[in-house]
Amino acid sequence: MNYRTITHAEALHRSDATTLSTQSIALDLRGMAELETFGVDTLLHLVTSDPALCIDFLGAGVQRVEVNGEPHPFDFDGAVIRLAGLPTGEDVALRIVGAATFSRTGQGLHRFRDPSDGATYLYSHLEPSDARRIFPCIDQPDVKSRFNIEMIVPASMVALSNQPEVTRLPEGDATTFERVVFAETPPLSTYLTCFAVGNFVGKRKTWSNGKRTIETAVWARASMAKYLDDEFLDVTARGLSFFDEHFGFPYPWGKYDSILVPEYNIGAMENPGLVTFNERYVFRSRPTRAQHATRANTILHEMSHMWFGDLVTPRWWDDLWLKESFAEFMGADASAHATTFTEAWTNFAGNRKNWAYAQDQLPTTHPIKAEIPDVDAARQNFDGITYAKGAAVLKQLVHYVGRDNFYAASRDYFRAHAFDAATFDDLLSALKKHTSLDLDAWANRWLKTTGPDVLTPEVVAKGGRIASLGVRVDSALPSQPTRPHRVVVGLYRDSGEKLSRYAALDLLIDAKAGGLVDVPEAQGLEAPRLVVVNDEDHTYAKVGFDATSLATICKDLHRVDDELTRAVIWTALWNLTRDAQLSAATYVDLALTHGARETNTTLSTQVFGNALHAAHAYAPPARRGDILARYASSLWRLLGDAEPGSDAQLVLARAAVAALAWSPEVDATTSLAGLLAGQVEGLALTPDLRWSVLQGLAARGGVDATTLDAELARDDTLTGRVAHLGATHAFPTQETKEATYELATTPGRCTNAEVDALLAAFASPHSQPLREGFVRRYFDELESLWEAHPMEIANRLARGLYPYVPEAMQLTDQALSRDLPNALRRVLLECRDGLRRRLACQEVDV
């Protein structure tokens, strides 16, 4: 297959020259269980002003091309079908018959064989430009058409697509195969078409608002169907009611199916009428409230795409944020207002924004509205800036213009551009009708700049009163201007057992050149024990603390009575740690003292994960072992004191298992074995928890292959097999590292899920000395590895095998001096920055 990216220049030419009305697609999937390819017959009805047309197709072959029913010459290079001599200015029926290849990477039409029952399943994932892996098309977001989809499948198998099935007809042997025909779609971008076939089992529910009804369903493969719960459809119904009211545009896609699929390479995808979710949202083991909240947020994120992205689609990927930032915002806003997970904005502040701040300080940071020259660049921008930073900036905008005005503008936007493609200027025009603010200036300062600002309070107190309070505004990136911030500055004092807010100053802080902004409203107020500049988390900025506030946090963080405030503080503390302003040891102490008392499980999970990373990556090498040992033993003691069967116990158990795996103390192996033996009262030893313990033991050499094989016999499922693969490749021996590296890097050998498990095993605790021989090998083989694997796998390998050792800094610079693919260059720049940050943090020892 000759992979080729699609450039913006090419896309502009095609959309100017070509209009599609309908596209019919017939997939012959009779060989879905045993063949490597499948047949595809596609018919495009179009009008073009250019007699030469390029059709995208990453296929196995093209048998014939017909124009208006007559054979037509073509050239096919494995990526593009080039046509010449097409009629111009009139309707053209372009038929292409060929073959495409089943996928194992989650791109295109992915095939999976269930180890539980041997059944074969197919599902598609096509964003941003992988529709061309299934059928010939013009694979860009602004060329929309109506789709008519048919699939030939084994008889009685479930077949799903964007629209409802309308008929099944016998195909050939009437008892063996059936041709499934689906209703025609509304106008749709190619990347939003979808296909799924297999022994899926569904749960159904009808939604109604009294005026219209929508049939909803959630599907899973047969062996996972028993884990489907009613909450999935309940959140779906709540979301449909919320968006029906707030968007004022009826859900436009007929049915609303959700499907949970294995080996998925992302979290979820907004295919209209058939939303795809990673199977991690099927809970085989008891989940915490945080997991339920995350799933609800994802369901609502994808649902908002039915309008932001599917109904109105960005013309090109430079406006990717127009759908992803909005969906990220809507997932939290709808969760907070339409579900029982009212803590959604706390979870966003304490979890998702960590992603944004980290991404936005990399050397590869980019504006929210980025320049995207081609599809490969677009793939790299599905990142923390496009999602979490964009959503945070939208939250700031909503605070500026008002929530009602924001939703009113959204309704105007949908009505004006329904079933079409649009740009940010179109959305800005809609917003301008509902506010007097200078949105052009706002957009220039927020959407076209990079890096976060840093807001730090400066307090002078006299006689128990505030003499002066100012907020210093700096840019985290020196070359960037600062932005306007509408914030609440919270002042806190002791209030019995709690630290409570006694003043909330709602301010517009705008220091265009940076500097100190005075807050005269604070003068004369009681001197606070704690000042939180971005209380309520309305803006996107890193937050600092004055000396008194930081001392209060270190002593009394768990006493702050509002969980959103605690989320803002926890995120600020992690930024300080990553910036080498707070030591790894101090962050670990904060996690043990206050994280263990945190009532929000999203926050406690995030804090414990950060603490472990700080201990093994940011701690000075001379103190690393002591810090890891202390962290692990402390978590083990806290686990023993936790309420049996509680969410807190489960969060602590997961954190303790991970920390014990890293601990240098011999007793940690005994603790892990004890946990596996059921010594922790009330802790359910679910398959997921058992595997995590076994993987930790394997990394310590504390279990043998026979025990791992016996566990696989107990849990011979997809999840069990992937976990077994990771555990058996985590043993701390040189031979194991060699075998793991070879297996992970062999082209076409492993699925994306298997590659992830192998990379985690390769980097498992206590294996750094065993990986020293791979440092130069990584750089010697990097470009060939990148070339040999599909983008999704290549990206995983380049990041997962990167050696975070001082020697790699110079080797990375040498690699960057070569002529590398842009996407690979970006990966190396980001890895090098991660290494630089580690080395800087390791110098902090206070």
Automatic annotation (TrEMBL):
According to the entry, every stretch annotated as the Peptidase M1 membrane alanine aminopeptidase domain falls at 233-446
Family membership, please give it: Belongs to the peptidase M1 family.
The UniProt entry, under CDD domains, shows: M1_APN
> What is the enzyme's main class?
hydrolase
Q: Which InterPro entries match?
A: Aminopeptidase_N-like_N (IPR045357), Aminopeptidase_N-like_N_sf (IPR042097), ERAP1-like_C_dom (IPR024571), Pept_M1_aminopeptidase (IPR012778), Peptidase_M1 (IPR001930), Peptidase_M1_aminopeptidases (IPR050344), Peptidase_M1_dom (IPR014782), Peptidase_M4/M1_CTD_sf (IPR027268)
What's the source species' lineage? Answer: Bacteria, Bacillati, Actinomycetota, Actinomycetes, Mycobacteriales
E.C. number(s) listed in UniProt: 3.4.11.2
In alphabetical order, the GO MF annotations are: alanyl aminopeptidase activity; metalloaminopeptidase activity; peptide binding; zinc ion binding
Q: Where is the ERAP1-like C-terminal domain?
A: 530-837
Reactions mediated catalytically:
Release of an N-terminal amino acid, Xaa-|-Yaa- from a peptide, amide or arylamide. Xaa is preferably Ala, but may be most amino acids including Pro (slow action). When a terminal hydrophobic residue is followed by a prolyl residue, the two may be released as an intact Xaa-Pro dipeptide
- Organism for this UniProt entry: Corynebacterium vitaeruminis DSM 20294
Q: Which UniProt keywords apply?
A: Aminopeptidase, Hydrolase, Metal-binding, Metalloprotease, Protease, Zinc
| The protein's name in its UniProt record | Aminopeptidase N
For the biological process aspect of GO, one term held by this record is: proteolysis
